[in-house]
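Comment on the following before class.
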Amino acid sequence: MNPSQVNPMRERVGAWIESDRVQGLIIGLIVLNAVILGLETSEAAMEWLGRLPSLLDRGILAVFVVEIGPKLYARRLGFFREPWSVFDFVVVGIALIPTGAAVRSQCCVPCGYCGSCG
């Protein structure tokens, strides 16, 4: 495709993902996620709320992962020329890396690898 030609679908997707409504939702989720992270530092709050903060955290992370897809589609490699996009990409990528403790606690079959299996 000639670089001067514009793909209308990419333009529509880009306009939608950058719309005030979608960006307002993302900002709201960022704030909610910050509150959840704060709650997770309190034993009392975690005891009272149970798994809810963890479930919300994972759901919000899923939304952040899905948000990156349309941005990559719309901007292609231009996505990586925007500092905030790179920052978002790195932060979401890091959030997807499970800690060793989380991997061990979710182990479901004896593997001999993680040390917590039988």
Summary: The mean pLDDT is 84. The radius of gyration is 19 Å. The longest helix spans residues 52-75.
